[in-house]
Amino acid sequence: MTLTVNDLRVHYRTLRGEVRALDGVGFDLADGEILGLAGESGCGKTTLGKALIRLDGRMRHAGGTVTLDGEELPLSDDRAMNAYRFHKISLVPQYSMSALNPTRRIGRMVRELLASRGVSVDTDELHRRLALVGLEPGVLDRYPIELSGGMKQRAVMVISTLLDPSVLIADEVTSALDVSNQQAVVGALTGLRDKGLVTSMIFVTHDIGLTSHIADSIMVMYAGKLAEKAPTKILTTAPRHPYTKMLIGSLPQVGARYADKPLSGIAGSPPSLLDPPAGCRFRDRCPLADRQCAEEPPVVEIAPRHTVACWKAA
Ligand SMILES: Nc1ncnc2c1ncn2[C@@H]1O[C@H](COP(=O)(O)OP(=O)(O)OP(=O)(O)O)[C@@H](O)[C@H]1O
Ligand code: SF4
Ligand SMILES: [Mg+2]
Predict the structure, then answer these.
(1) How far apart are CA 308 and CA 287, in angstroms?
(2) Which SUPFAM superfamilies match (predicted)?
(3) Which atom of ligand 1 lies closest to the CA of 49?
(4) Domain residue spans in the chain?
(5) C-alpha 255 – ligand 1 centre gap (Å)
(6) Which residues have beta carbons under 5 A from ligand 3 (an ion)?
(7) Which of 72, 141, 218, 257 is buried most, with the most CB atoms less than 10 Å from its CB?
(8) Rounded to a whole number, what is the distance in angstroms from the first to the last CA of the chain?
(9) In this predicted structure, what is the pLDDT of residue 254?
(10) Is 202 exposed, middle or buried (0-12, 13-18, 19+ CB in 10 A)?
């Protein structure tokens, strides 16, 4: 098993109290697995990715463990995490392609980044990896503004995986890209895994339709907790959690007319994570909710590799 996350709790300190953005999340990431991480805005996807790399000043590790290749990560110790981040676990952050320094050529950024980590990668190897994601060596001489969104995103991926990490977390790398650029980015990600340059991957997106094209398994989060995790085929064709069912059911179908099949969506909104309610957090929006749901449902493995947190799913 490449990564094991157990009862992870990460909070944000705010003036109004602690936001319980990750509130007891547990899952495994197998060797070679691409795990899609889905769920609506604010459910904690980015927080999970960041927590595995670097807790910023407002984040607090409130409990739980993360084990990578058999070693427990020292999440709260920023300096000790240096030995792992980028070397063994790497992140393509949300909005990273817009965060590239516009005054630096790509090649210079790569050199500076590597120097800051005290590592060197030879030019031939860098060119080989660029070719793997469909980029010419010439991109190293260009400024970010001279690259398309998809090219920037693939360049960031190459930079993030130069040291062959065990885990790559790609946070919304396909959002804001057109369909052909999305496909190029998804192809680049699977190529990195298939060539063994990255062992396993967490592909974060709120687009569950796209996730199903790349991920071996999908994990759906809701309000800081795991709702359901299953192999992709099972999660998309036979979901068991009412929230997953509604997410899948609300996907638009090409060719369907609104008059014949209105988009359903999911009425209501997730609870505040400042002071989340007791019991199942989906209770206010769930058509199956009853008195039992005032108790928090446990996460249960209802079939091999299929876990669900819902009283009605077993
Ligand atoms: N710096 C912060 N300070 C306080 N609360 C925060 C901070 N960053 C995130 N949060 C809160 O933590 C929760 C999880 O946010 P997170 O960004 O992880 O969600 P997400 O699933 O990545 O959403 P999106 O799909 O919009 O990217 C939300 O309730 C959010 O408001
Ligand atoms: S535990 Fe209850 S409220 Fe929560 S998803 Fe299941 S049926 Fe709905
Ligand atoms: Mg996010």
Answers:
(1) 17
(2) P-loop containing nucleoside triphosphate hydrolases
(3) 18
(4) 3-253+263-308
(5) 34
(6) 45-46, 94
(7) 218
(8) 26
(9) 63
(10) buried
